[in-house]
Prior knowledge:
The protein is of the alpha/beta class. The protein has two domains: 151 residues, no CATH class; 246 residues, no CATH class. α8 links the parallel β5 and β6. α14 packs parallel to α15. The chain is globular and about 70 Å long. It starts with a helix and ends in a 6-residue tail after the last strand. The relative contact order is 0.15.
Amino acid sequence: MAKSKTCNARNWKQSYISVTALSSSSLQSLLVPPKKKIIKPRNGFFLGHHCRPPSVWLLALFCFALVGLLRLGWNVNTLISFSPYPCLQTLSIPHLTGELGVLNSTQRHHAVFGVQRRQRNQIVDAVVIARILGAALVVPILQVNLIWGDESEFSDIFDLCHFKRVLADDVRILSSLPSTHIKTRPVEEKLTPLDVSPQWIRARYLKKIKKGGVLLLRGLDSRLSKDLHPDLQKLRCKVAVEALKFAPPILELGNKLARRMQSNGPYLALHLRIEKDVWVRTGCLPRLSKEYDEIIHNERRRHPELLTARSNMTYHERKLAGLCPLNAFEVTRLLKALGAPTSTRIYWAGGEPLGGKEALSPLTREFPHFYNKEDLALPGELEPFAHKASSMAAIDYIVSAESDIFMPSHGGNMGHAIQGHRAYAGHKKCITPNKRHLLPYFLNSSLPEAEFNRIIRELHRESPGQPELRASKGGRDVTKYPVQCTCKRKASHMIT
Length: 496
């Protein structure tokens, strides 16, 4: 128990700040290393060749005294700046059983979850469902991806001991079923509907798990409601950001690559979603050539089950609705419009793009300082992770989370997880492309470049690094918008 608290305390040794929106000039200043300035001595308030007149000192003393009186006599919270910080240490679930529908945990029942690869949110919800049912959680089984063929286990990607330790007060986690249940035929559930509540979960699964002792759930993506009690939302954040720590070999290499990027100044992390499987799943086309479009059409006909987008929409309709990833040409235009100079250093995260180097050529021509993990790693460093897409994605996650600015070219679970991680760590800057509104301007070839740039900057005026401050917190994915997992603390009391 003590170790778990120690692990949680480590994440508090940070300062957390709110960041105002970025203009194109401030984006440029973030991406260009500052030049060294020679500071010349000058007269200041306390420094100078002559003493200040007594009236100045009296005025200063009066101001200090006034602030002291205000702090003692009035509530001046509105006059003192606040910053968000993580506050997950007080989960009041045990005494809210009736309200939350959470069972007192006897740990006699076991929940087994099969989750799709690289689906962190499914692991998060598996923990929450186990907590709701009062069941012990068997380490989630990662299903083999049909395209990547990665057979990694949970412990190959995440630090299992850390996962158990951090969640020890919330859910009992087992590496495997106990010997008393090995021969037990689990109650299997495949058709969990979308957006279910804790009450629905109890009504549906409680009798089954009591009768069989083992419950097997598959395909949990977006099944559990996003509107849960605040303590269950905090548990979601705790799993996503604190418990799901990458395995030591992945973490070590990811941090090495991040330091190599940081050694030459600020950098932007770009999560490019232009792999073959992304074009197949989204129902979109890369538009590199007719040949590549035909490859995607054929793959989609052979594997219609891979299509996750709405099947009743045409490619053009999906594109205009903002449901397609931005390709390299569109990302290049967007970055230039936002004021990124050609000297911008970019780390691009993602798998092998359909079309290879040709697909990346618009970016590499405009931004020559363009790197990925293969460019940064020394010979042999990536060998242990060869043919392990999940481990490679984890390395990308680490380098992206440490960047000065993060921008995804499309949504998706990884992009959302990184965005939430950065928001949780103090609203680190993130540019979310407003695809639905900007694409008509991309398609308008008669629009002057200066006017195009002005419109793009206006569309993204509040995108980079702006905290999500909303009156209503309902219906939002807390792992992407972790506002319910942060509290407010006076800036003067922040732990740094």
